[in-house]
Every structure is written in structure tokens, then in C-alpha cells.
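Elongation factor-like 1, pasting as requested.
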Amino acid sequence: MGHKSLATIIALQRKTTNIRNLCILAHVDHGKTTLADSLVASNGIISSRLAGKLRYLDSREDEQIRGITMKSSAISLHFPLGMNEYLINLIDSPGHVDFSSEVSTAVRLCDGAIVIVDAVEGVCPQTQVVLRQAWLENIRPVLVINKIDRLIVELKLTPQEAYIHLKKILEQVNAVTGTLFTSKVMEERAEKESEKQGPYENSGGEQIYDWSAGLEDTDDSHLYFSPDQGNVVFASAIDGWGFSIHQFAQIYSQKMGIRVEVLLKTLWGDFYLNAKAKKIMKGAQSKGKKPLFVQLVLDNLWSLYDAIVMKRDKEKVEKMVASLGVKVAARDLRHSDPKVLLSAVCSQWLPVSQAVLTMVCEKLPSPLDVASERVEKLMSVGARRFDSLPERTQELKKAFLECSNEDAAPVIVFVSKMFAVDSKALPQNKQRPLTQEEIAQRRELARQRHAERLAANQVSENPESAHTGGIAETAPSIGENSTGVIELQTEESKEHFVAFARVYSGVVRRGTKVFVLGPKYDPAQALKMLPEGCSSADALPSVPHMSCCTLDSLYLLMGRELEELEEVPSGNVLGIGGMEEWILKSATISTSPACPPFTPLNFEATPIVRVAIEPKHPSEMPRLVKGMKLLNQADPCAEVLIQETGEHVLVTAGEVHLQRCLDDLRERFAQIEISASKPIIPFRETVIRRPKVDMVNEELGKQQKVAVIHQSKEEQYKYPEGVQVDSSGLVTLTTPNKMATIGVRAMPLPEEVTQLLEANGSLIRTMEQFSLSMKEGKALEINQRTLESIQDFKGKLESHLQGRKWRDAVNRIWSFGPRRCGPNLLLNNLESYQRPSVWQCLEGERVPGTALRDFDNSIISGFQLATLSGPMCEEPLMGVCLSVERWDMKLPSLGSHQDSMDGEEKVSDGDSKQKAAQEPWGAAEAYGSHNKRWPDVSVDCYGPFSGQLIAAMKEACRHAFQHQPQRLMAAMYTCEIMATAEVLGRVYGVLSKREGRILQEEMKEGTDMFIIKAVLPVAESFGFADEIRKRTSGLASPQLVFSHWEVVSSDPFWVPTTEEEYLHFGEKADSSNQALKYMNGVRKRKGLYVEEKIVEHAEKQRTLGKNK
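C-alpha cells follow.
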């Protein structure tokens, strides 16, 4: 980068009002990187001829090969407009759904966004996702409708048809924005209503249906995209042209003598030009006239394409070039490819960079215009409200809004991701041009060496002395050189991490000491621990989730290059070096300990694809572990973990993401050969209600069962000794020492309850933390907003758990599982045991008389273990309710504690309640003093008896689960495919082959494209995208996003039992069972026993080949 342009950018960084931080968002292949190329070319960084072909911001080799962007990268551009000069910090982001986490990291650092929509494909699934991400982060979007050349060259639409088509695209985009806006207004209004009146008060009848009032009061005119507002550009980035209505309004106001303001209002819309009256009039559609936009804009473009691309009419082209007043080189006129001439003409007549950057500077906000609502949202971590934060923290809001560059202003920086950079790319390691003095010095050294060589040749009469002397003289220098080279190599092979960040307040300088605040940092707790007025330079006590470090190096991000900076003022995007030890993926950096950590990023894609990784040579295991740590840090979405089996597992968002991560491990981070397992597909285990019909849809009650007696005999032997199962499904199990008996029943949870539990995992975790702190005698503060959410969650649970068998179930919840926050319930159905409720945080004070019974924790631990790995294939349970209906314990008499009883004492449910009432925390403390007398049945929660109780509870849960009809649950992707009518059948063929299910199919208005929405099991999705592309010759490509868990309908243990099933399926019933295939696949991978018959009824086989 030239010294002059770098100096210009550094000077502009101080003018906060003229800074624009923006990212480019779109669906995959809608032209983000091509448009970015045109904008980069406007600064002379790349040639304008290469714009669109070079894809400058796709710096990775696999990005260039695949033709898609895989990471967000930033570049700073300088743009003069009128009297002002602007600094544009542009971030290009990926459009592929696997890399949507990169979009989240980019959106957080920006104030505005350019949303690109393909003129042919219109609004696609990922377009809706990026619009929602921009909305959630409160940033202002502007619209570029790209690839308009496809309407002319591919679809061959007339200007009038193209105008109608463009109007429809604008309506589609505005419909998405309108939906987001409506939902926000509704939420705000609901909150206000709930604040005004009590939760159970009945509001007036007319108010309930007055849903539109909130929308009518709110002004949403600025939200929508409309060319006359100046926030829409029509473009063809590949051909280098783009325009807004403003440009044509200025051109025609000079030619036609109509004021610019009038043309701005009428160029887009139902207006036409009355040639006789020389007036612009309304009602073009009703009178069958050409709209002004078609007549003055599109007709000209169409005729240009017609002359250059379609007909190649040289004379007409020359006339047009002359009338437009553009200069075209002779070689462009002679070029065999008409697109070269077209881009040469268009890039001078309507340069796309000029149109887009002008719109950006005029319509997008500067860092000073940040909304206070956005600041409060960023500073409110988790469920905490802004007004509940400490006063010193709330005062920082002013620093945010002022975006001050003064020395006194606190430094606040947010790091959205860490990215790896090869050490060669760092500015300090780059080869710099030599100065005149250095060149003269090197010349002198070369002369001296040459003179020494000549002298050595002359002393060749005495070869021995010369030889030894030469060795003596040269050996040290060789040693020095060789060590120097080795040092250089180790330095080069090392990966450096640069933090991708933005300054929100203050000036960041090299060498500044700062606090690095982790996502769980609590400023209220830290301010109590730290002395008043302390700074990061002082020696301070250790505070959880806070560390101090020095900022080593600051970089200006210039796409593929980095430039070193001494300081960066507020409102700018920057790179910070040397932070890899302090920051894992994202963090907040500040000089004030009162600064809260920013809210976590909204990731749209969930990591779901797992592979186990191991090195080809076991000796290289340490390098693999180190490489996986680096990969975890470099990728915002990838997760790295070690399973209980000792396998190193990599979790990614999809197939393309997985491939990129494996390539990075091999070539950059570990630099070893690795072998990856087949993807580990997650399943869940569940139970369902007993089916009323058999496999051939016959009612079970009305037919003769052929194999029932045989089956019931088998069932008797299925349960081990000590396990009793009654006809209602209650499983009773006694511990090996015969001192405790547990009765458990399993029931399926309603689907809505399972979804509710899964969605509220963080709330359940908060409730669990509160219960634990209460047990320890501490008080955990929970803010009002969280309490409201928990109350709402409880209300929803009660509404879904209706009916006789769920009566008062919500108040009887003993625990959630697995990991104490999962989608399974443990119910306390013991009539005589009232334990503290899991909803203690809502009750405030402890309810008197509720105490924990001995070994309560053992029951919970057994339940947690049972739900973590089910009996079918050791996968977690989901949507299962386990109800404890019996718990009897026999303990030896406890001497002086109870004189009335001697010998053995039976502690049944009733007795335990009375004992528990004697002590506030149950009988555990009461028995404590007698532990030495009865070591074998100590009430110690870690003693051998508690272990037996845990094992018994686990086994009871597993047997209760097995007594119900068992099913597997498969992870499902939602799959959106855009395809033309001719390949629709092939798409359906691939989907049905892979167990997919079509949900919806609709034709896109104005095109021959169909949008197919389907669900597809994750287990069947590997290679799906490639197969679709192959079968449709690249005309359809799917977008897969993890959606939900779904029960696999077939029973993995099914055997024919009724006469009809025997007739239909045969005695063996060996047709493929999908659930059994999945289950056996998981069991094989985990090394569990798989019941398989390798050979059945084997016979002698004559080898035919011998007698030929």
C-alpha cells in the first residue's frame, strides 16, 4: 500500500463523523465479493479490469477454488464526495449457511450493511437470515439489486417486464423487514401491557383485539427500501455498472429542464411523461403508458446491451460511445469478447463504486449516530436489564454515544473473533525496500568478499594451510548463518493470531495496559473487589473472568495485507496482535473495570456435524492437540472436545465447514497427516405412547395374536434378578445390600413440553444454581427480568401438562436431566416426601417444613446418569418423564437417637418426613454424629451405600424406559432448494432416496424457479449437496440448517406378532428397518454388543469355477 494513501487513512481515522463501518451481506453467489472488488478497485488497490475476476478479499486458496467466501475480511477505503473525504471500513462476509457465524462476527462491528439481492433469484433463505441478523444487531441496511444483466441476457425480459420484476423483488425484501418490525412492535406493546396491569387481571374486551394500535403509532417509513429514498442501487457488479435514481435525475434535469426534486419523486413509481404537454403525469399503468423508469432508464440500458452484446453493431456502438462522452481504447473495441467493451463503456458511464459508496456515505450512520437502544442492548449481558447495572457501568453509556477521541475517555474495544495469520504476512516480517545507504553498504561488503576470494586463489601454493585456515575462518560464520536460518524457519512456521476488533470509545495506543473481560465477567462483583479509582496499570487482586495485558501491536486491516499503526481512535475497525494468550474467541477490552462484557454474538448455525480425529502416526498426537487448540481459537463456530472414550472430536456447522477445518488442521495448525472418522451422527432416545394399531394398520385389540405367548415368555427373562415389573409399568428394584427399594415409572412427555425444556436450558441452569446456593446456605441474587422469564416458563409448563396423570406435576418436579438442564423430567410422586421445590427462586423465602431426605442427591445422580446414556445405544434421553413412586429404606437403629426402636428400623416415606422435620436440613446432620458406629451404612453422600443407590436408581430408570415402546430420535435439517422445473423430478428423487420429506413447494413469481422446502435427517445428509448438483448439472444447490429432533417412526425392536403381520412381512420380517440400522450403527461405533446373524441356514456350496 502506498505511503500517501496510508497517511490519508490514518488522518481520516480521527474524523469520526466521516467514518462508515459497513459489511456486505447476501445469499451465497449473489455477488458480494465481486461488488467488493469494484469498490477496492476504486482505490487503485487492484486494476479495474480485474475487478470481479480476482476476488481480492477471498485470500484463501480453497475460497478461490470453490468460488465461495468462507471468512469475513476487512479493508479500509478512502472515498472523496463533494467537499468531504470519507473513510469506509468495508467487511466482506460469507453467504454460505455453514459460515453464518462469520456473518455474526462482521455484523457486530458495523453500523450499517449493504444487502445484495440477485435480480433473478430474488429473496433467498440466507437473504432473510442476514436481514434478521442486521435487525437483531440494530444496524441500518441499504439495498443493492445485483445481476440486472441476467434479466437482459439470460431471461431476455423486455424493459417493462424487468421493471415489474424489480418491483416484486423490492416488495419481497420490504415484506421481510416489515415482518421483523411488526414482531418487535408487538413484543414491546405486550411488555408495556404486562407492566401496566397485573399478570392475572382481565383487560377490557376492546383492548384485546386492538392489536393494530401499536403499529399505527410507530413510524416505520425509514425502514423500507425505496429507490426514491436513495437507499437502493441497481447494479451489475460483474459488468462494472450501477446507478441510483439520483444519478439519472441529475442527468435528465439538465436535458429536460425538470427540477431534480420532481424527478427524484417520479422516476420510480406509476408516473409517465406526457410528450405533448411536456409534463410528468400519474397513472402510467391504467393508461397503458411506459413508466418513467422504463422510458428514461431501462430502455437506454437495454439498447446498450442490445448493440454491444446481442447484435454487436459497431456503428451503433460508436454513436453511443460518442453521445455518452466516454473514451474507449481501440483494443477494447476490437476485442472478441463483447463483455470487455461493455464493461469499458459502463464503468465510465455508470461506475458501480461511485453509486454504492455515495449511497453508503449519505444513508448509513457514522459511529457517532449509534442508537442508545443499541448501546443498552450491547451492555446488557444475559437477562440483566441496563438499569440494573452498577452506576459506574451505566455512566459508560455516555462514552459510547460520544465516541470520544480524548485521552480521558475510557477505552472500550470489542473483539468479535480471532483469525490466524502466517508470520510472513505480518508487517514487521515483510521485506521492505532498501535505502540508498543500505545499498551502498551491501555493495562494499560484496567487493570485500570478492577481494578475499581472489586472495585465497593466489595462496593456492600452500593448500593445507589455506584449507585449514579457511575452515577456521569460515566455520563460525556458517554456524551463525545456520542458526539464523533455523530461527527464521521456526518463526515462519509459527501461526500468529490477530484479533478482529472495533474501538467504541477512547484511543487505543500501542503499549497500553488494558483489562480483558471474558463473557461471564460481572462488573458489579468486580467493583466490590477492586479499590476505587484503580486502573489496569496497578497491581490488583485477581477477579474472576478478568485479566490484564498490554496491547503489543495494532494493525490496519487491508484485505490480504496488514499495516502497522501506532494508535487507533474510536469508531474504527482494527486488528490487534499478540492477544492469543488472553482471548479464546471473543472478548471485551477496556481500561475501566466497570465496563460490562458485550452480549454474546447471535449465531444462526448450530454446530451438529461431529468427526473423531487422530494422527496417522501416533507419535504426532501432541501436535494434533496443539493444532486443534489453534483451530478452536481461529474459528468462531467450530468446537473441539475430548469425549469420555478419549477421542478428539471436532464439531462443525456442516460439510463444507468440516472440510475447511480439516484442511486447516492438515496444512496450517497441526501440519501433520490426520485421519478423520466418518461423521458421528447424534441421536436421542425416547418413549412413546403405546400404539393402537400394528404395522399393517390393524387395530391391536381386535385380532388374534399368534406369537403372544412366546413373546411374553421372552419378556419374563428380559429383566434380571431383583427387578419386578407390574402390569401398569412400575419397575421396582432393590439395592444389592437389600436396604433400599426404588419404584420408577417412565412416561412420554408431550412434544410441546420437550421443546419448551430444550429452549429454556439456560433458565433451568439458573434455577439449579439457585437451589445449590440455597443448600449451601448462600443467597444467589437473580434479577427481576430472569424471575419474570422463569415465572413465564413455569406458566407455559403448567398449560402444557394438563390432564389427570399430570395433576400438580410442575410443582412435583424433582430434577431436570441430563446435566441438570436437559429435556427430561424426574417427578417426585412419593406421597410422604415433600422436598424443597425446584422453583425456590420464585418463592423467595424457604417454605417451612420442606427438607431434603438422606440420599436425595443419590436419586438425582442416578437419574442424571440414566438420562445421559439410554439403554438403546447409550445416547442421551429426550422427552421422557421418570416418576419415582416408591422409595423405602431400611437403616440400622441409631442408638441414643431413638430409644424406642432397637434392631432394624424401617424408614418408609412417612417416617422420613417426620425425621426431616426435626432438623431444618433433614436427618443427614442428625445422623452425622453416629457415622463412626455404622460405617457400612453411613449417611455420607459419598459412602458405599449411596453408590449402590445411584446404581439402583439408574438401572430402575433404564428398565422403566425399556418397558415402554422405545424409539430413536434423529437430528433433522431443514433443506431449502431452488431449482428450475426441468430438474424438479431429479431433486425429488435424491430427497426420497435419502429419507427426506417435502414440506412445501412454491413457484417464484416472475421466474421459472421453484423453491422446495423439505426436512432431511442429518444421518442421510453427507454427500447430499454434491449428489444434488451432479444429478441436476449444477442447476440446484441446497441450503441445510439444523432444525429440530424428530422421532423415527419405526420400532428398532419390532418383530411380527399378529397374524396379519406374519402374512404381510413373513416369518423373518427381514425388510430393512431404518431405526435398527441407525441403532446398530451407533452401537458398533461405540463398541457395544450388536445382535447380528452373519449366516443363516448355511449350506454346502459347490465352487463352479473349478470345472470350467
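Note for the archive: Confidence is low (pLDDT under 50) at residues 198-211, 464-493, 706-717, 893-938.
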